[in-house]
Amino acid sequence: MKATARAHTNIALIKYWGKRDEQLFLPMNNSISITLDQFYTTTSVTFQDDLASDVFVLDGVELGGAEQNKISTFLDLVRKTTKHHGYAVVESSNNVPTAAGFASSASGFAALAAASTKALGYEISDAGLSILARQGSGSACRSIYGGFVEWHMGEKNDGTDSFATQLLSEEDWQLSIISVMVEAKQKKVLSREGMKRTVETSPFYDGWLASLEPDLLATRAAIANRTFEQLGTVLERNAMKMHATTLGANPPFMYWMSSTIEVMQAVQELREDGIQAYFTIDAGPNVKVICQPADERVVMDRLKQLMCVKDLFLCHPGPGIHYLTT
Ligand code: PMV
């Protein structure tokens, strides 16, 4: 009754921003991401008859409270799906620079979905796993697959058609993704709360939604044809628009710090010098810079010169979920 799975984090090129159903984690829009090779979570799940509740151990430390609750709530869903009634020990380790604020719920819930179903010997398709992982954290549904991935929002109210599929494998297009750490502190407005407030109060949210279809079409085409400049232009524009919606929320909020803007401007300057580099930002101050492998050294060197940059991590497209023998 034990299995171990590994899942990698992903970075959205077209952002998931806003839910139409909070309980089922149904998004307002499709999103597209790249799975990253360097950042991942490895999780072992052991179902045991002698337990009175689930046990969660993260990086060797047993956690209680809200952390343990999140895991238990997710395992309740697994128990409901698989019709199994026992509790489990969940042991996770993050190969993510957690102190750098890059810890991701995406790799965590994707690994947990895979390991828990495997431990119970439950047959599940990739789409089924994606649907399950989605209910732990929306972006986790994309971490089931490697390379370039699209999460289809679906049309139904029960969530059965809201899952991700792979657009292109990690071997099919080599890109460089540089995670730029400017601030290690925990973000102030969590993505769940940020999305909700934006959907409910931002007058810019309708504009965001209305502008997505062309971004999605251009991104799919850029991935299919491996046209980097087209991809970069759209992903940077999309990130800017997502962050613009937060400025219109009530009360307004922003994820950027002055150091975030410094990095953004350095990337724009690189382009003025003829180097194709583009940025994207999630629900926090750190920046991801995307370029082609031939330019990664130049881009890294330029970013290193910025006083505000605390650390840089170089990633490439990485694999989907896989199981480890224990
Ligand atoms: O799934 P969550 O709650 O981690 O939300 C992810 C939100 C963004 O990172 C901002 C966008 C995305 O698509 O990953």
Automatic annotation (TrEMBL):
<dbReference type="InterPro" id="IPR036554">
    <property type="entry name" value="GHMP_kinase_C_sf"/>
</dbReference>
<dbReference type="GO" id="GO:0004163">
    <property type="term" value="F:diphosphomevalonate decarboxylase activity"/>
</dbReference>
<dbReference type="InterPro" id="IPR020568">
    <property type="entry name" value="Ribosomal_Su5_D2-typ_SF"/>
</dbReference>
<comment type="similarity">
    <text>Belongs to the diphosphomevalonate decarboxylase family.</text>
</comment>
<dbReference type="Pfam" id="PF18376">
    <property type="entry name" value="MDD_C"/>
</dbReference>
<dbReference type="InterPro" id="IPR041431">
    <property type="entry name" value="Mvd1_C"/>
</dbReference>
<feature type="domain" description="Mvd1 C-terminal">
    <location>
        <begin position="180"/>
        <end position="310"/>
    </location>
</feature>
<dbReference type="InterPro" id="IPR014721">
    <property type="entry name" value="Ribsml_uS5_D2-typ_fold_subgr"/>
</dbReference>
<keyword id="KW-0547">Nucleotide-binding</keyword>
<keyword id="KW-0444">Lipid biosynthesis</keyword>
<dbReference type="Pfam" id="PF22700">
    <property type="entry name" value="MVD-like_N"/>
</dbReference>
<protein>
    <recommendedName>
        <fullName>diphosphomevalonate decarboxylase</fullName>
        <ecNumber>4.1.1.33</ecNumber>
    </recommendedName>
</protein>
<dbReference type="InterPro" id="IPR005935">
    <property type="entry name" value="Mev_decarb"/>
</dbReference>
<keyword id="KW-0456">Lyase</keyword>
<keyword id="KW-0067">ATP-binding</keyword>
<feature type="domain" description="Diphosphomevalonate decarboxylase-like N-terminal">
    <location>
        <begin position="7"/>
        <end position="164"/>
    </location>
</feature>
<dbReference type="InterPro" id="IPR029765">
    <property type="entry name" value="Mev_diP_decarb"/>
</dbReference>
<keyword id="KW-0443">Lipid metabolism</keyword>
<dbReference type="InterPro" id="IPR053859">
    <property type="entry name" value="MVD-like_N"/>
</dbReference>
